[in-house]
Specification:
Chain lengths: ~300, ~300, ~300
């Protein structure tokens, strides 16, 4: 590496002597142009995604005259013309939020607990063992989580409840495990950034480790920990295939946690191929996609709000 | 070193640009060759060219198997079989992106498709019936009761002459051809109550097999007659769900598998569709995969669902 | 006494959390590998998948996964590295930088299914690419770009300032400093990040459902001309990747050995993800050792 550094520095000085003015400036400009255009491309991509999906997602309201209120609060979904056409997406919105909150309820304590273990209890070997565990868990593809949910968790729930196994609970467990590493690693980063002197001060006053964690570390890290959980929830909200494989995709509102349900993502993956472009059914699926897009903006705003409080 | 690096960056950019620019060209290329080569060839000779067949995931295995055999006789013919669902098949063939669009239902039944532009080729018939878990104790049901079961009017098998066991419905997604066919001809257009919804026949079969009281619907080919199977065929109004009864029109729940072309087929499209209708496919591949050959039907049905004798 | 008990209880709860997490990973890996290993043999890896019969393999899916991964990296690495350089070196605090930061944040928080829908709308339909490798790779570029941008920015920012100032003091221009000092010094960090992101791209499925498609044409592995339709290199053909295959056989598959194929594919997928993970660690550690050893 230093070898490379050396040779390149010498070649650059060499070059510098050779053509002092024109070419260097041109080079500098060229570099700037390339870098700036890449930065511009990132903005363009974001705008394009937002714009295209918004326009497409609004089609059902503009072209097909779907009532927005009915779409968001209606309880029956029958857009393909069996009997009366209805397009109430509330059960899916409810399903997505339920899975998200339940998964967070599961992942937040476990993740933050593991993060505290890593940063406060077993600082050296805890870090050494858990860091790779987190990285590998993050790396496991979502379809694999779905497959395990399908072959392990669904039969397990079927045996221990009256239902069919495919359920909100199965979706929650699968997604909860999926967001666990995200929550853990961000929480661990937050806890590590707490200054050692605060902790030392607490220990110096004779506080036990638990008292220090509970009274000093957790309050100080609270906004960052909240960010970790919200980021995990954002991931849970958008998860598609793993959820679709285990949740049962019923269009009715679930009556209990072991009842089957559907999420925005599961309905999109399930129905997209069955619809023809430009039909009401197809446009409605794009509107469901628009909800996902809007929600990912909402999650960003929530995170911004939390971190603005952190600075104060 | 520096030179190498800027070269590398330039190279990647050129590649990116080249690939982007080539995309249009590449597509034109393939469609040109399909029109050009395909048109000139006679149907008895080996044909060449390249077409895309896609759509219905139910029809995909049959199409793929037929393509494999077809290519043995026509090594220069390139046929790409894609899935994506019946809706995708119809949309893409209407837009001209697929040369042949596979669908489980009539194009007329879908909005947003100019059905008059498409030419229908009915390559096979699929019969389907309610699939019920053996413990429910019902294997023959009147249509009236079947509708009650699926619309949620009755929720216990004992009300339709079975065991005292809760009914668990297993549905198909909205827009799926299987669902549309079952609703139209099995339930006389009634909207089924909500229940677990799965896209795959295998998953439906597995759920019905594992869950006491579960009922869904499956194509005939998914039933096995072995006694240890928990999944039972339902006879409707005393008519057994068999291929024979479908061909005579006695058993009501069946549908065509369609291959649509935009306008009359030409060249490779025509050669392949002719092959699909040939005895080679109709008497071996079609029944092998659990379909009923279209040629065996003694009745026919139009897009509105009206049935008439042939 | 009381506070000592509560301290001990709390400590055991935290240890339990960590144990649960490690146990989850061990169980997941154990389950996938023990169930999948039995299915993996040479013929599974080297034969075509079957759409309805028993005994299908995953040759094409495996190839497609790598090919799409390569294409995605070809697009996203140069773009992402340059974007990261902008944020680390060229951006001035202000509105535009803010917009770019927000853009990166938005891109990285988009659900992959939304990226897939965008790909379907723009690459597949508007640009007329159809279900193709190139459409899939472009969608995955959107998905991977923010990761590379962040990794690059972080790696460049972690370079000691004096190293950069030394170069600037020699009268070397900014761009030249970036190229000859900063990027080489940040290289280990970038490379590690790129390999880790490769693991994520390799396993991604939702973004590919609507872009690369659910099927693969018959490939002729003796024809390597990318412009021929049967060539494995043809970027305009549809391509089902390994992770899409797992989803497809489970949700639409009609072959009798669905579970065996899914388990085998999952094991192969996990093995490659582990390889990516491990090589990122090894390469990162190796380069780090080399730098710190020589300095």
């Amino acid at each position: 590496m230093s070898n490379i550094n050396h040779s390149s520095t010498s070649s650059s000085t060499h070059r510098l002597i050779k053509n002092k003015n024109g070419s260097v400036k041109r080079n500098e400009l060229r570099g700037k142009v390339v870098v700036y255009s890449c930065a511009a491309l990132i903005i363009i991509a974001t705008i394009a995604i937002t714009l295209f999906l918004t326009i497409k997602g609004l089609q059902s309201f503009i072209v097909n005259g779907v009532n927005v209120g009915e779409f968001l609060t209606g309880l029956t979904w029958s857009p393909s013309g069996e009997g009366d056409v209805s397009y109430g997406a509330f059960p899916f919105i409810f399903g997505s939020f339920s899975v998200t909150f339940l998964a967070a309820l599961f992942a937040a304590p476990l993740g933050i607990g593991s993060a505290i273990f890593m940063t406060e209890i077993a600082k050296t070997w805890g870090q050494k063992v858990l860091q790779p565990v987190i990285e590998i868990l993050v790396g496991i593809p979502s379809v694999v989580y779905g497959l395990i949910g399908l072959t392990v968790i669904v039969p397990l729930i079927r045996e221990h409840s009256s239902g069919i196994g495919f359920s909100l609970l199965a979706g929650m467990i699968v997604v909860g495990v999926m967001i666990l590493p995200t929550v853990t690693s961000i929480s661990a980063d937050a806890l590590k950034s707490i200054p050692q002197d605060i902790k030392d001060a607490s220990y110096g006053l004779g506080a036990t480790r638990w008292q220090t964690i509970y009274k000093v570390i957790l309050p100080a890290a609270m906004p960052s920990l909240a960010t970790a959980v919200v980021l995990g929830m954002a991931r849970a909200f958008g998860e598609a295939l793993a959820v679709q494989m285990v949740i049962g995709n019923s269009k009715a509102l679930p009556e209990s946690i072991t009842d089957q349900a559907a999420t925005l993502t599961s309905i999109i993956t399930l129905s997209m191929g069955h619809t023809t472009y430009g039909s009401l059914h197809n446009n409605l699926l794009w509107s469901l996609g628009l909800i996902l897009l809007v929600m990912s903006y909402v999650f960003i705003i929530i995170i911004r709000f939390i971190s603005s409080r952190r600075k104060v | 070193m520096k030179k190498f690096k800027s070269l590398a960056i330039m190279f990647t950019f050129v590649l990116v640009m080249g690939v982007l620019a080539a995309c249009g060209g590449g597509n034109e290329n393939s469609s040109n060759s399909s029109n050009g080569n395909g048109g000139e060839e006679g149907s008895s000779e080996a044909v060449s060219g390249s077409i895309i067949v896609g759509g219905s995931s139910a029809l995909q295995p049959l199409a793929a198997a037929a393509v494999e055999q077809f290519q043995q006789n026509n090594p220069d013919a390139q046929i790409d079989v894609q899935g994506g669902g019946s809706g995708t098949g119809l949309s893409e063939v209407a837009a001209g992106n697929f040369d042949i669009g596979n669908a489980d239902y009539f194009a007329e039944s879908k909005e947003g498709i100019e059905a008059s532009e498409l030419v229908d080729h009915k390559v096979a018939v699929v019969g389907m019936t309610a699939a019920v878990n053996a413990e429910a104790g019902v294997t023959d049901i009147s249509k009236e009761d079947l509708i009650k079961v699926f619309t949620g009017e009755v929720t216990n098998w004992k009300d339709v002459g079975g065991e005292d066991m809760e009914i668990q419905l297993v549905n198909r997604p909205d827009g799926s051809g299987t669902r549309a066919t079952f609703n139209e001809f099995g339930l006389d257009g009634a909207t089924p109550a909500e229940g677990i919804t799965e896209d795959s026949s295998n998953t439906v079969k597995k759920i019905v097999n594992d869950t006491p009281g579960a009922v869904g619907y499956l194509a005939f080919s998914y039933f096995d007659d072995s006694s240890d199977s928990n999944v039972k065929k339902m006879a409707i109004d005393g008519v057994e769900a068999t291929d024979e009864n479908v061909t005579t029109g006695d058993f009501p729940i069946w549908a065509y598998e369609h291959m649509y072309t935009k306008g009359e087929p030409e060249g490779l499209e025509k050669a392949f569709l002719d092959y699909m209708m040939s005895d080679e496919v109709q008497t071996s591949l079609v029944p092998d995969q659990g379909y009923i050959p279209a040629s065996k039907m003694k009745v026919e049905r139009d897009a509105e669902g009206n049935q008439s004798d042939l | 006494m009381n506070r000592r008990i509560s301290n001990n209880i709390a400590t055991s709860v935290f240890i339990l959390c960590a144990v649960v997490m490690i146990a989850t990973l061990v169980y997941l890996l154990g389950y996938i590998l023990t169930n999948g290993f039995a299915e993996i043999d040479w013929s599974f890896l080297s034969s075509n998948s079957s759409s309805f019969q028993e005994g299908g393999g995953i040759k094409n899916q495996l190839w497609n996964s790598f090919y799409i991964l390569m294409m995605t990296m070809l697009f996203s690495v140069p773009l992402g590295v340059l974007g990261g350089i902008y944020l680390a070196e060229y951006s001035k605090p202000g509105k535009i930088t803010n917009v770019i930061r927000t853009s990166v944040e938005v891109l990285s928080s988009l659900p992959s299914i939304v990226v897939g829908m965008f790909g379907l709308l723009v690459f597949v339909q508007y640009m007329g690419l159809g279900y193709s490798i190139i459409a899939g790779a472009l969608a995955l570029t959107v998905f991977n770009l923010p990761v590379i941008v962040r990794v690059t920015e972080d790696s460049i920012r972690s370079i000691p300032l004096k190293q950069k100032n030394a170069s600037l003091a020699l009268g070397i221009t900014h761009w030249h400093t970036v190229k000859t000092v900063l990027v080489p010094a940040a290289f280990p960090g970038i490379l590690t990040g790129v390999i880790l992101s490769a693991g994520r791209v390799f396993g991604e499925a939702a973004a590919l459902l609507f872009t690369a498609g659910l099927s693969t044409p018959n490939l002729n592995f003796t024809n390597w001309n990318p412009f021929e339709s049967t060539s494995p290199l043809n970027p305009f053909r549809s391509a089902e990747t390994l992770s899409v295959h797992i989803w497809k056989v489970n949700s639409q598959g009609i072959m009798p050995d669905v579970l065996e194929i899914a388990n085998g594919s999952a094991a192969v997928l996990i093995i490659f993800v582990l390889i990516f993970n491990l090589s990122a660690r090894i390469i990162g550690g190796f380069i780090f050792a080399k730098i710190s050893g020589k300095k």
